[in-house]
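Sorry, any thoughts here?
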Amino acid sequence: MMRNRISGLYGITPATADDAWLCERVEQALRGRMTMLQYRAKDAAAGLKRRQAERLLALCRRYRVPMLINDDIELARAIGADGVHVGRDDVAPERAREVLGDRAIVGVSCYADLDRLDHAQAIGADYAAFGSFHPSTVKPGAARAPLDLLRQARERSALPLVAIGGITPANAPALIARGADALAVITALFHVPDTFAAACAFASCFEPCTSDHPSS
C-alpha cells in the first residue's frame, strides 16, 4: 500500500498507555500533513501494543498515510500494517522482507554507518535512517552523527534518507539541504502544546501547509 517515495514528516509515536491521548495527537499530526507514522512501543505489553496499533492503523487508513511497526514483524503482519522499521538489535531486514512480502515498506536504521546503508540497499530496503543528528530526549545516550553524513549518503545511494534525533522546525532545513528526504520526529511533534501546528511547521519545511486547524 502506498509505496510512494518516502518524504516529508515521519512521526514516531511516544510511549504511553493513554490510547485517547495518543490517537488524538496522531490525528492532529495527520491533519497537519504527516506523511508516515511509525508505531514504537518497545516495552509495552502485547495486548496494549495490539490495541494501540490497530487504532492508529485505522486512523492512518482514513488519511491514506502508511503506518509502520517498530521491530515487531509479527504484529505488523497480524494487523496488516504497511511495513516495519528495524534497527541494529532488531530482526534482520532480510527476515522482515521475507515475512511481510515485496509490497511491505522496510526501513533500516543506519545510525552513522554508511556500510549499513550499502547493506540496506542490497537487500531491497525502502529507506535508510541516519542519526542522531541533535541531542535527543528519547535516546539521550545515542551517538551523534555529523550533518554532512547525509550528503555522503546521498552521493552513495538513491535510497530515500530519513534523518532522526532531536529534530525541530528550526534545525530541519539544514538536514533537508544536505539530502534528508524525510524527518523522523517524536518529542517536537507529540510532546508539544499543539501537535497540529508542529506538524504544519515541519511540513512547511518541504512545502507550504494549507490544512485547516482541527479546532477551526
Notes: Residues 46-62 form the longest helix (17 residues). The chain has one domain: 8-203.
